[in-house]
Amino acid sequence: MPVPTRIRRATVITVLLVGLALAMLVAVGFGAVSVGAPDIVRAIVRAITGEARVAGDAVIVDIRLPRVLLAALVGASLASAGVLYQALFRNPLADPYILGMSAGAGLGAVIALTLTASATALRFGVVPAGAFVGAVLTIVLVVRLASLRGTLDVTSLLLAGVAISYALSALTSFVMVFFRESMASVVFWMMGGLTGASWPYVLMVTPMLAVGLAVPLLATRELNLMLLGEERAGELGVDAERFKRLLLAVGALLVAAAVSVSGLIGFVGLMTPHMVRLVIGPDHRVLLPASAIGGAIVMVLADLAARTVLAPVEIPVGIVTALVGGPFFIWLLVRRNGHR
Q1: Over the stretch 64-102, which tens digit does the pLDDT of each residue have?
Q2: Which of 20, 118, 132, 258 could form a disulfide with 74 if both were Cys (CB 3.0 to 4.6 A apart)?
Q3: At CA 129, angle to CA 266 and CA 75, rounded to 5?
Q4: Residue range 3-339, CATH number
Q5: How would residue 23 be classed by pLDDT, with cut points 50, 70 and 90?
Q6: 152: enclosing H helix or E strand
Q7: CA triplet 218, 222, 225: central angle to 5 degrees?
Q8: Under 8 Å CB-to-CB from 327, ≥6 apart: which residues?
Q9: How buried is residue 4: exposed, middle or buried, by Cβ count under 10 Å (0-12/13-18/19+)?
């Protein structure tokens, strides 16, 4: 690798890490009551060392900090899953929800919301579990339908995902109509948001993201070879069928972890990997960690905008990402057509 390329990539990673630190600091500081950086640092130090709290520490440590951290984790999970699925389908327009996991998670969450309609406190544990189970069961069903004689066909996988997505969306609509009293909370959840962020959620998503990043980072050579096509990758020593299933499993873990705590948030997993790829290229040794950091930045800033632009009214984060992601997607299509 030429030295200038290594320097550029190291510079990009460094800039992204600094940008993430600054974005999180700003997000923790801004709100109904603004808090300065020194106060934030002192509050975190007191929480770690066990010193007596002072006024304002609860807002920083118990409310804003877990929300900002959760936003970063969700953004990193969605962006990382986007990288994996774009490698699997060899298409930069693939996103984490392409195989119907959003519909499965939505149905699981809707069922959980309707079952806990009279127990608001119970929802904080049941709804994420329902969304996670729904997403995982959906990807298992899609893979089962797309498998033929031990071979996982990518085209069949995509078609099965679309078909299952429509069917599950219809079931979700049916449940919403049947349980009208829960419709408002269901619709708000499906718009995406982090209003229920807490430390247990952070502790739940963190190990999932760690596994979801560690596994593909150990297989970046295979990821790069898959871009050449399955046949060529097989000639170079990659077990394509096994590796495709690994990508699907890891991607499903990342998406399910994010959706279970944040609802359906679109475009983060589509935009971020593509923007990073334009800057540093398709090498997954750098693309995957850079996209994870970039996704965290995008999500932290989107959540900050969602809770401050129309304060005290909070906008669902999914609306913010869609307002930004829609024009980006159109630009992406126009750019691809222009190249052709």
Answers
A1: 999 999 999 999 999 999 999 998 888 877 888 888 888
A2: 258
A3: 30
A4: 1.10.3470.10
A5: very high
A6: strand 151-152
A7: 150
A8: none
A9: exposed
Chain position carrying tokens 């640092």 = 41
- As a dihedral over the C-alpha atoms of residue 163, residue 166, residue 171, residue 176, rounded to 10 degrees, the angle is 170
283, burial (CB in 10 Å: exposed 0-12, middle 13-18, buried 19+): middle
Task: Give yes or no for a contact between 100 and 106, defined as CB atoms under 8 angstroms apart.
Answer: no
CA distance 244 to 249: 9
Closest C-alpha to 180, from 119, 259, 113, 263: 113
Tens of pLDDT, residues 278-294: 888 888 999 999 999 99
Query: What are the sequence ranges of the domains in the chain?
Result: 3-339
Pick the closest to residue 127 from 106, 100, 101, 103 (CA basis): 106
Place of tokens 């809770």: 307
Question: In the structure, what pLDDT confidence band is assigned to residue 1 with cuts at 50, 70 and 90?
Answer: very low
E strands, 51-130, are none
Q: How many residues does the chain have?
A: 340
Contact 213, 288 (CB under 8 A): yes
Q: Assess whether the previous peptide bond of 273 is cis (omega < 30° from 0).
A: no
The pTM of this model reads: 0.90
